[in-house]
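re: ur question from yesterday

yeah so i grabbed the chain u mentioned. its 161 aa long if i counted rite. heres the sequnce exactly as i have it in my notes:
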Amino acid sequence: MVKLTEVEDEHFTTEKPIPTSKDTLLMSDNEEDDDFTDTESEISVDSTYDLTNETLYDRLIALKDIIPPQSRRRIISTVNSITDATKSTFSFSGKALWVISTSAFLLGVPWALAFAEEEQYVQMEREQGMMRGANEMLTPGTNAAAAALGAAGTEQSKPAL
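ran it thru and got these structure tokens back, copy pasting raw so excuse formatting
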């Protein structure tokens, strides 16, 4: 079984007077540096860790401990919610685009073909009307006979849509 013991640093066990706002202006640079350095700790110069082989990923993983766990959870939940919202938006957009495009093909293509056919019939009727007008101008005597035949029973048929 492993037994843990807490080792306190001398720096924190010795009591120093708490500086007031007046005293902080009078502190020298050396006194401020004493708060941040630990002269008795060993600097790991003789470490076997090679810094040249360290990757950016290794450095980012080491920075993970700097951010408190609550902040990490909040950041991760925010990133996850943004990622989920983006995925659902793209998924919905893709499905909606599929429905719209297939509906356009299934409904639009037959309508366009029927419309083009109707335009052809209208164009043919115009051409026939122009031909009748040209024939009447060339042979003025046959106009009365053609009018009598047309009124007697020949109807032109129109295409139905």
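noticed a couple things. The chain is about 65% helix and 0% strand. also Helices lie at 10-13, 21-26, 29-36, 56-63, 69-138, 143-152.
anyway ttyl
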